[in-house]
Amino acid sequence: MGGERGGYHVAVLPVSLSEAARATPTTGVAHLAAYSYQSYDNGRIPPRHDIVDVFGQDMVQTRWLQRRATECARILMGHGEFQPFVTAEQAEARARDQAAKLANCFSPIPATERGEKDPFVQKVAQPGILVLSDIKADGGGKLGHTAPPTLFSGVAQASLEEATRTGLISSYKVFAVGDDLHLLMLHNRGVDNNDIHLLAFRTFWRAVWVTEILQYRPYGLAQDLKIGPATKGKTVEELAEPSDVFVSLLGDFLPSAEREALPQIRNALNQWRAGRSETEVRRPFAGNVTGQGPGFAELPLIHHDAVVGLVAADKAGPAAFNLPIWLAVNAALGKAEFREHFGQSLALEIFDVHEHRRIFLDGFAHRSEIVRLLGATNLFNVKRVWSLRQVVADPARVADHLDRVLLAASTEKLALIAGGEYVGKDDPVLLGVPELVEPVFQLMRDGFYLTQGDERGSHYMMLAPKPLTEAIATIRSRGLEVGLRVGIAAGTHISLEDVYAEPAYFEARERIERINDLLWTAQGSEFTPIGVGARDVEPAYPLMKVLRRITGEDSRYGVWLNR
């Protein structure tokens, strides 16, 4: 750490003694010179000619080390006043100070799961308005935290096909990003609709139900789904609510091997209805955070023929979207044609997920305030971006001028908004108009940024843009991102275009792998299991539990000074 007040992560640049003598302060870099000697008798210092300039001995090697340090510095400085260039301590101090100054502008987040309505969302997304919803969850993995069991997709398609036949939704797509199963649904029930959320929840539990019948044991089965009051005391069947139509449709969507078990599945349904069988909800074996609940992003649509951008990440948290969204907002506001079409400014709806409150700020009028809040990526995240017909200078009045929702992200979890504990990275997804999402696609192709990821959020790494066919976290659970263009036709049909399957992104992936290898080494690789620092790693990480137990204020092992 270095920079002003030690508030920045800097790259260590080795220099010779002669270079150190004429070095000038450089942003993002700490110059390191070193000398050494073998002392004479009784510690006597040898003559100057026997004092060794450590980095001056082999300037070819030193130049190579300098190039690596310079590249690390360039990557860090590219984040501006966001983490990880700004240290977590500095970013959080700034954010809390800024939040205190804006305290009167914050308001509680409506608890929609308890029937509270969000007045701002209700104005623009009432029933009858076309809505695109992406609801996703980690229900288990076929091999650790890599990808969902193959049958999950078939079960989900059967469940959503049943919903289309009843008219609840008009179209759907099912896909996986890492070990998260995504349910992309088109409907006219409005945002935060209980029937849509219940459909998704039931669909995930139906996958668990079929898996239990087949006696499969995937890793972390129902990992995100066992969320306290919503599931306590209930059986898998009560949560899945399987129907005759659903079971019949399984024959159209299950893989061939599982299709042979349809008589067994039908028999299980009949046994449950007769009260002769029920399946206990098991505690998932997952090795990390469990019970977070499904995540969701929902975008109301103005036109029935439209294109929506979708970005989803695995092995990362909502913090992964802070910088890309802010860069996209700035790029959009800099274009006259964007302002002519959508309005003179944009409002960012920012969630304080720990304090369960939110604030609306103008992208033009409150740039510095937004940067201070979003710079603390683990405290404040963007939930929605709204259009504003005019610039609103008073932060207390921004909410009065909200127009359209142009982008929505899964900043909060369904479990979190029910009063649960915020416990770490939760694989976010966002939906937005092309004008705001295309810059994110471009950033993943041509630019770079770091986010907390890797094994349990242990290191700062770059997300790799991957096509759906390869959207699996493999080596060290390294983070990944999927980019899709969602086509909406006549308000009744969804089609997907896999943006990151384009050849240009394969070059980007190779470049990112090279940079990630450099950053992995710079953060201590295997020798430093929590390169991001203990305060930021996922709380369920077993090492973190041990560290907190032995260093907490009630520790029996610590010797406390100045008490």
What structural keywords apply?
alpha+beta; 10-stranded mixed sheet; 4-stranded antiparallel sheet; 20 strands; 32% helix
Describe, in plain words, how this protein is organized in 3D.
- The protein is of the alpha+beta class and 563 residues long.
- Among the domains are: 4-77, no CATH class; 119-273, no CATH class; 303-317 and 424-563, no CATH class.
- Helices cover 32% and strands 20% of the residues.
- The chain has 16 helices and 20 strands.
- The protein has helices at 17-22, 59-77, 88-101, 119-124, 150-166, 194-213, 236-240, 244-253, 256-259, 262-273, 322-333, 336-342, 367-374, 434-446, 504-522, 542-551; strands spanning 11-14, 29-32, 35-36, 52-53, 107-108, 131-137, 171-177, 180-187, 295-300, 306-314, 345-352, 357-362, 380-388, 402-409, 429-432, 450-453, 459-462, 464-465, 480-489, 493-498.
- The strands form five sheets. Strands 5, 10, 11, 12, 13, 14, 15, 18, 19 and 20 form a ten-stranded mixed sheet that branches. A four-stranded antiparallel sheet has the order 7-8-6-9, with helices on one face.
- Strand 19 (480-489) and strand 20 form a beta hairpin.
- Helix 3 packs across helix 13 (367-374) and helix 5 crosses helix 8.
- The longest helix is centred in the middle third of the chain and has 20 residues, at 194-213.
- The chain is globular and about 95 Å long.
- The model is unreliable at 284-291 and 414-425 (pLDDT under 50).
